[in-house]
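Re: export button greyed out
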Amino acid sequence: MNVVVTPTMVGQVVISGILAGALYAMVALGLALIFGVMRVINIAHGPLLMLGAYTTYFLYAGLGLNPYLSVPVSMAVLFVIGAVLQRTLVFRVVDAPELSSLLLTFGISIALVNLAQLAFTSDLRAVEYLTGSWGLGPFAFSKTRVLAFVFAAGVTTLAFLLLQRTRLGRAIRATSQSREVAMVCGVNVGRIHTITFGLASALAAAGGALIAVVVAVQPEMGQVWTFKSFLVIVLGGAGNYPGALLGGVLLGLVEQIASLFLTSQLSEVVAYVLLVVVLLVRPTGLLGGRQT
Amino acid sequence: MTLAPRAFLTGLAVLAAALALYPIVGTGYGVRAMLQLFMWIALAGSWNLISGLTGYVSFGHVAFFGAGAYAGAILIAKAGWPWLPAALAGGAAACVLALVIGYPCLRLKGPYFAIAMLGLNEVLRALTSYFEGLTGGGSGLSLPTLHATVPIYYAMALAAAGVTLLTYLIITSRFGLRLMTIREDEVAAEAMGIDTARHKLYAFLLSAAGPGVVGALAARDQGYIEPISVFPLATTITMIVMALFGGKGTVWGPVLGAIVLFVSQEIVWARFPYVHQLLFGAIIAAVVLLMPRGVLGLLQTKYRLPRTL
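Workaround output, generated via the alternate export path:
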């Protein structure tokens, strides 16, 4: 294939990659939290993102709420849904073999998608809020992408502040390092699990709310996000929360750079090849993570 | 040999004879339904080989079905192969794919394999849509007309019997014991000197062959394939539900699960297509939480049936 790559194109691609990467990082941080704290890979993470997108859509279509103002509402709604899922179902498999938690969250995932199809139909919905782009020199920035970046960076920063600076965050990190020791120190581990699951679902919901403005909202929009979030974790190193940031930006960059040379049809193939190559070459992630 | 196993074997032989004679007396619908049941037995049994025995969950087993379907269909349509060798080639193609995916992902413990399989499906669908020259892309691939439902019925029956026999042979062998050791405690298995990566990979290759053969047979039977028809996530979900419901890690569990769920699907659920996935999701959750060893596992515990059932 003959593609002429100009410096402007490279710059544009790098910027787009970073913009997309912040979103990946935020959503993947949720998956990483659940994995870190409970050793559970939540296959339903993507479908929870889909529910967040629907929340934003209905607030916009029904009440005319600005989609960016609905981000915290979506997050709150999904926090509750996530906490309920943890309290009713997921807590039963936290100590079970991995097979059980993978299968259970897989079951939840397909049930959620089917429920969304029943409740919302499979019609493509759009939140037509902002269109067009801002120009800066030779580069063009899609407005929705820039705002998604700003919000994702903000939410991710808040999440890290919560983890690093608060008592709750310390309890979460302690539980993820050693559940027994955390318990001995007086941490209510069951409660931390519930909060973590809620928090992770809220992060997914923020992702859903922000991309509701960019892409069509439909019941099956979420599944690919489970895969991509996991890829981000693998890139950054499992159990390594800052690694998720690097992984997110990296995935965004790789996808954008690949889009220079390949049709967008193959963008998932690129992400997949990246996963296999990383697992082959550096299975502990680029920053090095905890061994699983 | 005591009486019970002999009666069991006699029963199996009678059943096999009845199934062999069935196409002579059966209706067209009946033969086709049985053919599909055989397909599901082979698929659920194959999933059980990797996920039931080693505990490594494959969320994308339909990928091997689709890879076999495309390999077989291309050989039949473009190279003029007869369908039987094409079906075997479909199995071989699925094994090659399993090697490529399994080698990097099964060396690691943990969920890497499960997630890699989760994405594989979409990737293959995108690839088959993209390489239009070979696969016909999104418009699909038509095979020359051939009325071979009855021969394919026998081939499917052989595939189902083959997968079940293979499962029995594995479960009663040292190889199978090693796989189950990996499932129960991988670190202990390693400490005992089991080359876990290699064993997992072998189990994975064996579990890919069946869906590859069956996929090629199904492609021949339907006469037309396209990316969305051979890579549906629903197929993976169905084989997981069947194996889990019947009892993962057992010989007859997937067979039992396939029969029960296929029959109920034909009779009852066909009327409620919109809640299909919801129901399957609920079954998965219920089995995982309430009866992790499936129906057969319950029966084994209750009636002290042999573990090799």
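Residues 77 and 300 of chain B are 47 Å apart (CA to CA). The button fix ships in the next patch.
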